[in-house]
Specification:
Radius of gyration: 17 Å
Number of strands: 7
Shape: globular
Strand content: 25-35%
Largest sheet: 7 strands, antiparallel
Mean pLDDT: 75
Low-confidence stretches: 1-56
Structural class: alpha+beta
Strand order of the largest sheet: 1-2-3-4-7-6-5
Order of helices and strands: HHHHEEEEHEEE
Distance between the termini: 15 Å
């Protein structure tokens, strides 16, 4: 089966959802048409995700750096799982499902980009060809009910978030971004009146 390259997938996803922004090999930074095919349904060949058991990210024995890395690279994937079946099991059927077929190199089976929309939360998946293999690509959350296991709750101040990430910058900002260089996992955070109102994880993969 032919697979999209990371660069091709990223460009396609940005065209599909303009709110998606990512950086693959960027250091930690603060302040910052093809053929179409039916999109697979929620229960259409969804891969089992039995290895993904939600857990609280911060463990007593974790170092500060490990906690930060796990929050960026795991987050919702650890709390809820990384497949459509797991997200549906956690929150019920989404209010809306958007899908876009994406051409693959060499004209192989079409890959799909599928987004689950819930009130104040979105889960975007990359589905590889006719294998229907789920890869959670992006999660956007602006509701506290989705962040019960998060070490950084909504309402946190800019200073609180910077302290958690060991960020020595100061001053007001409306957004922060933290990335794990070489891995491609990316976390963006938005603030209003110095309070955290939204988070977005974008996950890299090979």
């Amino acid at each position: 089966m032919r697979r999209l390259t990371r660069r091709t997938l990223t460009l396609t996803f940005i065209a599909c959802a303009s709110s998606c922004r990512r950086s693959v090999d960027r250091p930690v930074v603060a302040d910052t048409a093809g053929r179409r095919a039916p999109v697979p349904s929620v229960d259409s060949g969804v891969a089992a995700d039995s290895a993904q058991i939600p857990y609280r990210l911060d463990q007593p024995s974790d170092t500060a750096q490990l906690r930060r890395d796990r929050f960026i690279s795991d987050g919702p994937r650890a709390w809820f799982g990384r497949t459509r079946a797991r997200i549906t099991a956690a929150f019920g059927p989404p209010d809306k499902i958007e899908g876009k077929a994406s051409a693959t190199e060499g004209g192989g089976p079409l890959d799909s980009l599928v987004t689950f929309h819930y009130p104040r939360a979105e889960f975007a998946f990359y589905i590889r060809g006719n294998a229907h293999e789920d890869l959670l690509l992006q999660v956007t959350i602006s509701d506290a009910r989705f962040l019960k296991s998060s070490p950084i709750p909504l309402g946190s101040t800019v200073a609180d978030v910077r302290s958690y990430f060991g960020d020595s910058d100061h001053g007001e900002t409306s957004s922060l971004r933290y990335t794990r260089p070489g891995i491609g996992d990316d976390l963006e955070l938005w603030f209003e009146h110095d309070r955290l109102v939204k988070l977005r994880w974008t996950y890299g993969f090979d």
